Amino acid sequence: MPHTGSCLCGAAKFTVTSPISETHACHCGMCRKWSGGVALAVEVPADGLTVDAGDTVQTYVSSEWGERSFCSACGSGLYYRVVAPGPQHGTYYLNLGALDDPSGIRLVSELFIDAKPDSYALAGDHERITSTEFFAMIEGAAGSAQ
C-alpha cells in the first residue's frame, strides 16, 4: 500500500510507491538546524517517490553530497536527497513527520550519534552510527556535516 503525505499547508503532496517500514534519526548539525531537532526520515529509492507540488517545492543544495527540499509556501521540510555518486545516489530521505500515517514504521538507526546533544536520548535497541562511520558509508563524499 502506498504512503501519502504533504507539507503543512498541503501545497506539496507526495506518494511513496515503494514499501517503507523503517525510519532513521540524524543528529548532524545540518539536520538539527533544518528540522529544529533530531531529524527522522524514511529511506525511499530514487524511483519510489512521486511529488505533486506545482512550483512550491524548492531545493537547497546543503552539501557536496546532498540537497534538501521544502515547501516555499509554508516552509515545511520535505526530504533530503543524496546527489553524491555511488550506491545511494538519488535516494530520498523523506521526513517522517510529512507522512499522513507513519504507523508501523520503526526506528532502526541513529546517524551522527557523536554529534547528538545531551538534551535528549532515543530509547530502544537500534544501530548507532558515528560521523566517521557515516562518511565511510557514502564513499566519495567530500567534507563533513557541521
Write the layout of secondary structure elements.
Elements: E1 3-6, E2 13-16, E3 22-26, H1 29-35, E4 39-44, E5 49-52, E6 57-61, E7 66-71, E8 77-82, E9 92-95, E10 106-111, E11 127-129, H2 131-137
How is this structure best described in words?
The chain has 146 residues and is mainly beta. The chain has one domain (3-137): Beta Complex (Metal Binding Protein, Guanine Nucleotide Exchange Factor, Chain A). It is 10% helix and 36% strand. It contains two helices and eleven strands, in the order βββαββββββββα. The strands form two sheets. It has an eight-stranded mixed β-sheet with strand order 6-7-8-9-4-3-10-11. It has a three-stranded antiparallel β-sheet with strand order 1-2-5, with no helix packed on it. The longest helix is centred in the N-terminal third of the chain and has 7 residues, at 29-35. 29% of the residues are buried.
The main β sheet shows up as: 8 strands, mixed
Global mean pLDDT: 91
Structural class: mainly beta
Number of strands: 11
Percentage of residues in strands:
35-45%
Spatial strand sequence of the major β-sheet:
6-7-8-9-4-3-10-11
The figure for the number of domains is 1
Order of helices and strands: EEEHEEEEEEEEH
Radius of gyration from CA coordinates: 15 Å
> Which percent range fits the helix content?
under 10%
Overall geometry: globular
N-to-C span: 37 Å
CATH class assignment: Mainly Beta
- According to CATH, the fold-level topology is Metal Binding Protein, Guanine Nucleotide Exchange Factor, Chain A
Residue stretches low in confidence (pLDDT < 50, at least 5 long) are: 140-146
CATH arch. level architecture = Beta Complex
The number of distinct helices, counting runs of at least 4 residues, comes to 2
